[in-house]
Amino acid sequence: MGLGSCMITFFGAFLSGFLFFLPISYSDKAPDYTFVKEATSAPAVVYYDYIIIGGGTAGCPLAATLSHGATILVLERGGSPYGNPNITNIANFGPTLLDTSPTSPAQQFTSEDGVYNIRARVLGGGSAVNAGFYTRASTRYVKEVGWNHNLVNQSYEWVEKVVAFKPEILQWENALRDGLLEVGVLPNNEFTYDHLYGTKVGGTIFDAEGHRHTAADLLQYADPRKITVYLHATVQKILFRYIPGRASPQAYGVIYKDAYEVRHQAYLKRNSNKNEIILSAGAIGSPQLLMLSGVGPAYHLRAHGIKVVVDHPMVGQGMADNPMNVLLIPSPTPVEVSLVQVVGITKFNSYIEGASGLSLSTSLAHRLSNNFKRFLSQTEHPPFRVLPEAIARAAEMVHGIANRTIRAGVILEKIMGPLSTGHLALRNTNPDDNPFVTFNYFKEPEDLRKCIEGMRTIIDVVNSKAYSKFRYKNMPVEALIDLMLTLPVNRRRKHANATFSLEQFCIDTVMTIWHYHGGCQVGRVVDKGYRVLGIDSLRVIDGSTFYHTPGANPQATVMMLGRYMGQRILHDRIVHGSKKKN
């Protein structure tokens, strides 16, 4: 494993443990999905009404919905989330990030900005590997996008019946909530799925027994007679043809490979001109596959020897990732293990969240322990000093780390938007490989302003009376900031003034919260019905179409979108069929 991979392994698993760990048992009993099969069992050629590329957070609810009016094929490049304790059991979240195998459900990549990241590679998509926080988009977001408000609410409710739950709020999360209220992130909105300014408890996709419920669970809504899901089915390209009398090329099939590298073909049936191929491969996969299929910036495609079907210069543009910055706060008292459950939604457009407790692998604990020891050894020197008694107590935390437990909390801020955007470009023509992705974190000054305000709010919470039980009184915030600067949170250069400049701290320690989006945006690549502009029978329905992240966490809205568009497409199909009969 190279240095970059080691860094990803170290801090990715470290932070993930904070954000995602909960000591529970798990149930590995898979649903009775007779229609989910390995692609190695697929015929050489198949025909369906709809071919959905990607069985992820949007693809699963979309497929389940469409199956009630058409035949559906879902091609998922990853495996099943069921029976995998690293997915089902949140206590084993860390090993998911440590898994660098070709079939890992979390495929690692590092953006050109030097920030470590992952993309999901599993049925259920990001909902199978994330923190589980569930919250809806704001009513303003829904209005700006132009969705039907009533259908949106119905679609959220359809999702929530299966995957959303009210979490149990424990001691540390209570302190965080009260701290947010104390410093003015008001009002107290209690528990709600809704996006409201102030402090609230959000939903979770973990049930009372601690079992994860992913978008794959929404396939229980499907008509099993009309749907087939192939796993480890990697689409190589979308096929296009020209039909006399039509100005635009038409998508009519795909070529995909199974786990043994055997090529298969899937085609749209010719029984209706409403049949379509739908890309739901996510913000990385969807623009990447469009380019590999000949739809993208012509000069870029030709540079990779790809035949241009449509010169689409906006494919891969508008890539954005909500920057995240955190403070790790050692605690003088024991903390429970908690997930992200509380969020402060501020008026200056930053989200404040947190989690506590961690269980580590032996090797990871050893490395983190050594890092913290080096940090403590520097505390006798400027730019700050920590009193001896505080160092002694913090040393207890080091001992705990070395024994695979940690007594600390982490409070993070994520900015809304963001305004800063970048682009995606092909690395090569292999769909299994990650493309080049640039997010241009903090390119827009407004994003940096939001981060600074968010960090100030975190500092106020740390200094609040409500949170005082869980921080060392004699360890100044400057020490906590410097601690973050000692950790390998990314591959970016660290500047000496980052200890006392929040602006520099935001830039130097920026991380991802895995909410990236863009690349196939509405109005640029697809129309308001998510049809690819200039191409017939092809849509993109996933987070790649977003300009901004919807709410504190996008997964609820991405699942909702799959259901929402499934209903819209079925409605259009039925209306078209009725007119044709008449």
From TrEMBL:
Cofactor field: FAD
Keyword Signal: yes
PROSITE patterns referenced in this protein's UniProt entry, alphabetically: GMC_OXRED_2
Record bears the keyword Signal: yes
Every Glucose-methanol-choline oxidoreductase N-terminal domain range: 282-296
Keyword annotations: FAD, Flavoprotein, Signal
Record family assignment: Belongs to the GMC oxidoreductase family.
Protein name: Protein HOTHEAD-like
Organism field: Prunus mume (Japanese apricot)
